[in-house]
Design a protein that fits this description.
Blueprint lengths: L1 H20 L14 H9 L1 H17 L8 H19 L2 H4 L8 E2 L11 E7 L2 E6 H7 L1 E6 L2 E8 L4 E5 L2 E2 L2 E2 L2 E7 L2 E6 L5 E3 L5 E3 L9 E2 L1 E5 H7 L4 E3 L6 H6 L25 E7 L2 E6 H7 L1 E6 L2 E7 L6 E5 L8 E3 L2 E4 L2 E3 L18 E5 H7 L4 E2 L5
Parallel strand pairs: 3-15, 17-25
Antiparallel strand pairs: 1-15, 2-3, 2-14, 4-5, 5-6, 6-13, 7-8, 9-10, 10-11, 11-12, 16-17, 16-24, 18-19, 19-20, 21-22, 22-23
Helix pairs in contact: 1-3, 1-4
């Protein structure tokens, strides 16, 4: 019966380790294999597995006599440490916390540096900005805009910012950070227990698998550029309880962190290179950030739509706009976009009395490995010869 004790002990330790391994970035390529179904099955039936192994331990211990009485207590202490590490120290939702009270201030009371990057959203005449330095730690901020609830998300390992309406099966739901899938943050909803991928808003496991969260169009700009566009915006302020965590993210947005998961490859088309990913009617394309920095404006046609990828004069903010015709070109003057007699602000809104707005195309700055993972057919943009 000693074997039963040891089998139960080793089995429970391996089970707890597997629960973490498949949903966290671990050595051995845990995030490079298609393991989401295995991970979800382990999570769903975790109490059955735990009860089975615990029963083996109890029966094996009660039915055996150990020559060295100190061995079982020591092994049980090791097991307890493994269980604690797997469920607390290494659990995503105990490593990253949401602010208990969200503080939003206008431009007069704002304390955030205007050079900081923000994820901005405008809806029903209301505008809000969320600094990436803070989002990168929290991963998720719950708020509302224009009378609708929003879930503002960010994944530093993929460099992805998305804003969703947190509605599951027609009802507003709560979400917790549960781990990662293909290096992308993954959330679990409270009502169905489904797992949702942050980069796409798609449920990848559970009863809601295949569903998508409604997404709000968002923009990544410097705070100064966002304020110039939306002077009445509200801006998320720091929660000083997390100041140490914010400080650790101070150089992330500039690409100066050196960690394996959050560094930047300064060369083009490497795993951690920055790109602008664009989706249009099911077709996706990636635009090299280095090329955009050099050219400042890139013209292309995607699914029959002529577009322009435009970099702001601050060299950090960007926008992708649909051109009226394939031969339409722009000039940028202090972030005013000009085309012939027409003028637009940086978001494509007409500044002429009789002008028409340019349609903004959904686009995101990401690491190249992230865009490839979730847009496997994406083509890298090349300058016309």
């Amino acid at each position: 019966m000693k074997k039963l004790f040891y089998l139960g002990l080793i089995g429970l330790m391996l089970f707890e380790a597997a629960n973490v391994y498949f949903i966290m970035p671990m050595p051995g390529g845990s995030q490079e294999i298609d393991s989401i179904d295995i991970a979800y099955a382990l999570h769903t039936w975790r109490w059955v597995w735990r009860a089975g192994f615990a029963l083996m331990i109890v029966i094996g211990y009660a039915s055996s006599s150990f020559a060295k009485k100190w061995i079982p207590p020591v092994l049980l202490i090791v097991l307890a440490g493994t269980v604690y590490a797997a469920n607390f120290s290494m659990a995503a939702d105990t490593m990253f916390y949401q602010p208990e009270t969200l503080s939003m201030k206008d431009t007069v009371e704002n304390l955030v540096d205007p050079d900081r990057l923000v994820l901005g959203v405008e809806y029903e005449g209301q505008a809000k900005a969320y600094p990436i330095q803070y989002l990168g730690y929290h991963h998720q901020i719950r708020d509302s805009i224009g009378g609708k609830p929003i879930m503002v998300t960010y994944c530093t390992v993929c460099r992805t910012g998305r804003i969703f309406e947190p509605v599951v099966q027609g009802r507003i739901d709560e979400f917790r950070l549960v781990g990662m899938d293909r290096f992308n943050a993954m959330f679990e909803d409270k009502s169905t227990g489904s797992w949702w991928r942050q980069a796409t808003g798609e449920a990848v496991a559970g009863p809601s698998k295949g569903s998508r969260l409604p997404e709000f169009p968002s923009a990544q700009t410097t705070l100064a550029t966002w304020i110039a566009l939306y002077p009445n915006t509200l801006i998320m302020q720091p929660d000083h309880r997390f100041q140490a965590e914010y400080d650790s993210m101070r150089t992330y947005e500039a690409g100066r962190l050196t960690g394996r998961l959050t560094r930047r490859d300064t060369a083009s088309w490497q795993a951690k290179s920055w790109i602008i990913g664009v989706d249009a009617d099911g077709t996706s394309k990636a635009y090299d950030w280095n090329l955009l920095m050099k050219e400042r404006m890139l013209y292309d046609v995607l699914q029959g739509k002529p577009i322009a990828v435009i970099l702001s004069e601050d060299s950090a903010s960007f926008v992708v706009l649909e051109r009226i015709t394939a031969d339409q070109t722009f000039t940028l003057v202090h972030d005013t976009i000009k085309s012939g007699e027409n003028a637009y602000d940086f978001m494509g809104r007409a500044l002429n009395g009789n002008g028409h707005d340019l349609k903004r195309i959904r686009a995101h700055q990401e690491y190249w490995h992230s865009w490839q993972a979730f847009h496997p057919l994406a083509q890298p943009y090349q300058l016309p010869q």
